[in-house]
Design goal:
CATH topology: Alpha-Beta Plaits
Radius of gyration: 16 Å
Largest sheet: 4 strands, antiparallel
Order of helices and strands: EHEEHEHHHH
Strand order of the largest sheet: 2-3-1-4
CATH architecture: 2-Layer Sandwich
Distance between the termini: 16 Å
Helix content: 25-40%
Structural class: alpha+beta
CATH superfamily: Transposase IS200-like
Strand content: 5-15%
Shape: globular
Length: 200
């Protein structure tokens, strides 16, 4: 998908961004917490979140832009619509806090975040697995189900979350089926290369 294509209300997207020059955007545990706090503040008002993975120098998320969000540009001078402006504010806020914490300057994220339209139910289902399996794909852990910074464990827990947990579990037919789906794919880590937005 052309990343200048605007985010449209009612549509589902795989969104992705990474650190500028592949620099880490997460250095320690509190960074992940801060990221999700800002995500709730800036992204939750305009998008539903179904899955996410936070991994060292990049992140993935599966979102749906809410119906009430305006598809038009925020101003005559802006190329962004309401949803894209919220994402820009989110990236700016996280980068500002990160730079202050680690006494760094300059861009933290790549210039444009990547987005890919989710076009089918099968794609939606397998994308959730792809996002959850990403830590194992990148050899950060031997079993992605034990990684702390994806939505996999959040969906299975009872703790407060920004996720559309109920919707995801209902989509798979319940918690047991959600786990079974991931377990059945875990050992083989099936070929999901077509989900890659670009070389990570």
């Amino acid at each position: 998908m052309n990343n200048t294509t605007p985010l449209e209300p009612g549509c589902y997207y795989h969104v992705y961004n990474r650190g500028n020059n592949r620099e880490n955007i997460f250095r320690e545990a509190r960074n992940y917490t801060y990221f999700l706090k800002l995500w709730k503040r800036h992204i939750s008002p305009i998008a539903e979140t179904y899955a996410y993975a936070l991994l060292g120098n990049h992140f993935h998320a599966l979102i749906r832009i809410k119906d009430h969000v305006s598809a038009g540009k925020t101003s005559e001078k802006s190329r962004m619509n309401e949803a894209e402006q919220h994402f820009a504010n989110f990236f700016n806020a996280y980068a500002k806090g990160f730079n202050k914490t680690y006494d760094r300057t300059g861009k933290l994220f790549e210039e444009r975040f990547k987005k890919k339209l989710v076009t089918s139910e099968a794609y939606f289902t397998q994308l959730i697995y792809y996002i959850h399996a990403n830590p194992q794909r990148h050899c950060l852990i031997s079993d992605f189900r034990e990684y702390k910074h994806t939505s996999y464990q959040s969906i299975l827990s009872e703790q407060s979350t920004v996720l559309m947990r109920k919707n995801v579990l209902e989509w798979f037919g319940g918690k047991e089926q959600f786990e079974a789906f991931h377990n059945s794919l875990y050992r083989g880590l099936i070929d999901l290369e077509h989900f890659i937005i670009e070389d990570e």
